[in-house]
Specification:
Distance between the termini: 43 Å
Length: 813
């Protein structure tokens, strides 16, 4: 009954002070909605259990070569066997493709391009995932010459096969017939975007037979995934693999580029840059929560000071401290519950906005929703908010001095302890605002640095798609040459070309190649002393369509045919590294090549130098070498078309021309280069938006807190100021002390905030590009901005206080 009576009294008081109540509820709703939204995202992406057995025991590994500036070196199947056979670190290990591979499914409804993952037979057992229908792979499925089998993803099973359980055991047409042996459970999507899984050895062995080579030893397209033994850490596993790789290098059977090993936890590999970004954003809204609670606590202390005489009268009439405390507890609970309810309703809308701003490649983000864990987290946030907001007012209310509060000069005054508490809260808000502003500044500067990077091409007005002809009677690049001639004649098409892998197609994955220069012996030692090159195959029109600048020599042309002297183009950086200080045009280099009669090497003559292109990542420059498509057996299937008209209209015309040339052609991955670039910088853009919003809110809350503190000081000292002016005081005698006090609070807050920021910015290291964690420019801008805000927030009420009419104030008193 007492609780209900106190709640009723508190509610009645809040209804009388609507402005105060609305400000407190709005502030709490703001910070609660931000916390609920971010936690729903973190839970959906990072915390919700994966459909994999104990993923914390899994690691993913690959090679690297720092000397060649290669962060990712894929393994051959033989390397995988040599790395993992008899390993003391792994209970189980499997090989998987470093990226998904394109495949075409033929059906009566037409051909569809799918994404496949080549894996070893132990893949599903290593992950601890069991198909919902049929079976996984057996050892005899993953042998050279074994019948081709596939396991379908749940998504493909439902969309293309109508969720028919009878599909298991049937044969489907994937370049060659494959038997469906199983269907994976819903939610299993690893590697992300996989439509079906197939044993990797028959694929590699088949391609090796086609090119007359041992592809199991020579083709590097795999990563290792291993389940650690109990007590083994990723670092211990890396040490073991490093030792094995060094021994393989000594025997001459290591990967082409170096023997270093990279081991990363499975969850870190799966979620990539989204993992640190989401954790950093969750920490940011936690900071925002503390700022909001400090702001509301400051409002409550202000309200306490205004009701100081009332509290003292209650105590003088026999009320006990516990009774007064319960009233403030009831008021705090009402404000917290109201703010939480409004915040939860707003979080649903904010979550939709967050998903719209987020990059598409954050896994499972679209599944963020209000559920039991999010509700429990939000309840915890409300408890913390109530505790932080009410602790100060409750303490000061019960510690009130009756005699001091009833003195005439305390009618509108604030006790020394209350004033000190408000100052500490304000210092806390400034310090925490510094943390968020520094984080936002670092991310914004990183994003600006990314946008300032010269991509080597102009992405605007370029439509791109993957075009795979199904006509086996002609080589793919000859067919593509015919298509490009047709496209060049279309209205609104300025240029058209094709390339083996369009920029930013596979992230850090690409085709690396060794090189031997003219005058060097054709030996592994010579290959090792030269840098690894990023290999591309391109048509003449590709450079015009992408506006890749020619720096020296010439581009490919119609005279570069299969019968003419093999030619190559180099990027500026590649030319500078291979022939420093010399003109590379006319020089020759020896590159590996594959022909139907077997693998070999062929000399190419460098005919031109073009600008560097960012193929592997916005912040990842490589050394590029281009083969002419007319002289290469590797298909250039990524079409790029520059248009002066509507991109969608031109894209439709390109598809129509391709189908006229080959009715069975498969066209997919239709997009624009602008969209590809936007996706590449998506994690940074998302972080910029979120951190900027949070930092802006923190700055506003801190400014409002300071404004209210100075305004209250002015209101409580109006009589003092009137007496000063009556005795000949000047405005600066009033304004300067108020600004000096605000300056002291600013200085303390800045000091605490900068120290905290230096430590907290460690969480942002994965998002920083071209900027240090302790960046002098960022810190200087934050200090300047906060100083300006403090001057305005403190100066306005101080100037108003210095503008009072002393006669009217003294007459009223």
């Amino acid at each position: 009954m007492e609780l209900l009576r106190n709640a009723r009294l508190a509610l009645r008081g809040l209804l009388k002070a609507r402005g105060y109540a609305c400000a407190a509820v709005f502030t709490l709703a703001l910070v609660v909605s931000a916390n609920a939204t971010m936690f729903s995202a973190v839970y959906a992406v990072l915390l919700r259990p994966l459909p994999i057995r104990q993923p914390e025991e899994l690691i993913v590994g690959w090679g690297s070569d720092q000397a060649q500036h290669l962060a990712v070196v894929e393994l051959s199947y033989r390397n995988f066997e040599e790395w993992t056979t008899g390993s003391v670190s792994f209970v189980q290990a499997a090989a998987m493709g470093s990226s998904t591979w394109p495949a075409v499914l033929d059906s009566p409804d037409g051909s569809t391009r799918l994404s496949s993952a080549g894996v070893s037979a132990s893949f599903f057992d290593t992950l601890g995932v069991v198909p919902v229908l049929g079976r996984g792979f057996r050892t005899d499925d993953d042998l050279s010459g074994a019948p081709r089998v596939v396991v379908l993803s749940h998504r493909l099973w439902t969309t293309r096969f109508g969720a028919d359980p009878r599909v298991v055991g049937t044969t489907i047409a994937l370049t060659q017939p494959h038997t469906v042996v199983g269907v994976m459970p819903e939610g299993f999507d690893f590697p992300r975007g996989t439509d079906f899984w197939t044993p990797v050895v028959p694929i590699l062995a088949g391609s090796g037979a086609e090119w007359r080579t041992d592809a199991l030893s020579s083709v590097g397209v795999l990563f290792v995934i291993g389940r650690l033994r109990p007590g083994v850490t990723p670092r211990m596993a890396q040490d073991e693999l490093d030792g094995r790789a060094r021994r393989l290098e000594q025997r001459g059977s290591s990967p082409r580029f170096g023997s270093a090993v990279v081991v990363t936890p499975f969850q870190e590999y799966t979620f990539g840059a989204a993992r640190p970004a989401l954790w950093a954003l969750l920490a940011a809204v936690g900071v925002l929560l503390l700022i909001g609670c400090a702001n509301v606590s400051g409002l409550m202390l202000t309200r306490l000071s205004l009701r100081r005489r009332e509290q003292a009268v209650r105590l003088a009439l026999g009320a006990v401290g516990r009774t007064l405390a319960s009233l403030w507890v009831a008021e705090t609970l009402i404000l917290s519950i109201a703010g939480g309810a409004v915040g939860l309703m707003a979080s649903a809308w904010i979550a939709k906005l967050m998903v719209a701003l987020a990059p598409d490649d954050i896994p499972r983000l679209t599944e963020a929703s209000m559920n039991v864990p999010v509700a429990l987290f939000t309840g915890g946030v409300l408890f913390i908010a109530a505790l932080v907001c009410g602790a100060g007012p409750v303490h000061h209310a019960t510690a009130a001095n009756v005699i001091e509060a009833l003195r005439d000069d305390a009618r509108s005054g604030m006790s020394r302890h209350t004033r000190r508490s408000r100052s500490l809260l304000l210092v806390l808000q400034i310090a925490l605002s510094v943390v968020l502003l520094v984080a936002a500044g670092l991310v914004v500067r990183s994003f600006a640095n990314l946008r300032a990077i010269d991509l080597g091409f102009v992405p605007s007005q370029v439509v791109t798609m993957t075009v795979a002809p199904r006509n086996p009677s002609r080589p793919p690049n000859q067919w593509m040459d015919d298509l490009l001639r047709r496209l060049s004649g279309l209205p609104e098409v300025d240029a058209a070309g094709a390339v083996f892998l369009r920029p930013l197609a596979l992230g850090p994955i690409g085709q690396d190649t060794t090189v031997v220069l003219e005058g060097q012996p054709d030996t592994p030692q010579a290959e090792r002393q030269n840098p690894a090159l990023n290999y591309q195959v391109a048509t003449p029109g590709y450079f015009s369509a992408m506006r890749i600048a020619l720096k020296r020599g010439r581009l490919f042309n119609a005279q570069d045919s299969a019968r003419s002297t093999p030619v190559a183009l180099l990027s500026v950086s590649a030319a500078r590294r291979l022939w420093p200080g010399r003109d590379p045009v006319g020089k020759r280099l020896l590159l590996p090549t594959f022909k139907p009669d077997g693998p070999s090497k062929a000399w190419r003559t460098v005919v031109g130098v073009v600008s560097d292109v960012r193929y592997r990542g916005i912040d990842d420059a490589r050394l590029d070498v281009y083969d002419a498509a007319s002289q290469s057996p590797m298909a250039a299937n990524d079409v790029v078309v520059r248009t002066s008209g509507d991109v969608r209209r031109v894209a439709a015309a390109v598809q129509a021309e391709a189908r006229r040339l080959d009715p069975r052609v498969v066209i997919d991955r239709l997009t624009t280069m602008e969209a590809i670039v936007a996706r590449a910088v998506g994690p940074w853009r998302f972080s910029v938006w979120m951190f900027t919003v949070f930092a802006g809110l923190a700055l506003v809350l801190a400014a409002v807190g300071l404004f209210s503190v100075v305004s209250l000081d002015v209101a409580q000292r109006r009589r003092e100021f009137a007496v000063r002016f009556a005795l000949g005081g000047r405005r600066k005698d009033v304004v300067q002390p108020l600004l000096a006090e605000a300056g002291r609070r600013l200085l303390i807050g800045l000091t605490l905030g900068i120290v905290t920021s230096v430590v907290a910015s460690q969480m942002l290291r994965g998002l920083l590009v071209g900027v240090e964690r302790v960046d002098a420019t960022t810190y200087a801008l934050v200090i300047t901005l906060l100083a300006a805000v403090v001057i305005v927030a403190a100066g306005v009420p101080a100037w108003r206080g210095a503008s009072i009419d002393p006669s009217s104030v003294l007459k009223r008193d």
